[in-house]
Amino acid sequence: AGRRFHEGLKPWSLVSCGIALPCATQNEVDENDVQALVNGGCRLIAEGANMPLTAAAQRAVDHAGLSYAPGKASNAGGVAMSGLEMMQNAQNRPLPRALLHDDLRQIMCNIHDKCVAEGEVDGRVDYVRGANVAGYRVLADAICALGI
């Protein structure tokens, strides 16, 4: 009740918020949307989809000094939980919800710590850089472990 449809507009230009969570589709948010979010008081964008920000939007986020969590880090919880579920199924051993919650929390805290450690530049954390470097290190370590 009391809601209106705004043809041709995205939600980013219609709201004031501290945190934006674009979760719909790839390239959903462009640089104009980022400016609208900044104007509305947004301080953090965390991706909830695969690459909802365009490359120009990512540059606008960086230029505006917003905190930004790329999907490869912020969406990792779903992938991690799928892995925990597959482990349970493979072992035919259901785990208590509290234990799964604790495992997922530990995984996500570890991802955050790695992003911070690899992405700290001039006293600011670049989560994109941190996630990319941390991911590369995992891949490089695996390749080295195989002797390649």
Q: Could you walk me through the main structural features you see in this protein, from its secondary elements to its overall organization?
A:
The protein is 55% helix and 8% strand. It is mainly α. The strands form 2 sheets. A 3-stranded parallel β-sheet has the order 1-2-3.
Helices and strands in order:
Layout: E1 19-20, H1 31-39, E2 44-46, H2 55-64, E3 67-69, H3 71-74, H4 76-91, H5 97-119, E4 120-121, E5 124-125, H6 127-145
Parallel strand pairs: 1-2, 2-3
Antiparallel strand pairs: 4-5
Give descriptors for this structure.
single chain, about 150 residues, mainly alpha, three-stranded parallel β-sheet, two-stranded antiparallel ribbon, 5 strands, about 55% helix, globular
What are the secondary-structure elements, in order, as H or E? EHEHEHHHEEH
Number of strands: 5
Order of strands, main sheet, comes to 1-2-3
**Structural class by secondary-structure content:** mainly alpha
Gyration radius, rounded: 18 Å
Helix content, binned percent: 40-55%
Main sheet specs: 3 strands, parallel
Report the uncertain regions.
Answer: none
Q: Please give the alpha-carbon distance between the first and last residues.
A: 62 Å
* Count of helix runs: 6
- The global form is globular
**Percent in strands:** 5-15%
Would you kindly provide a brief summary of this structure?
The chain is mainly α and 148 residues long.
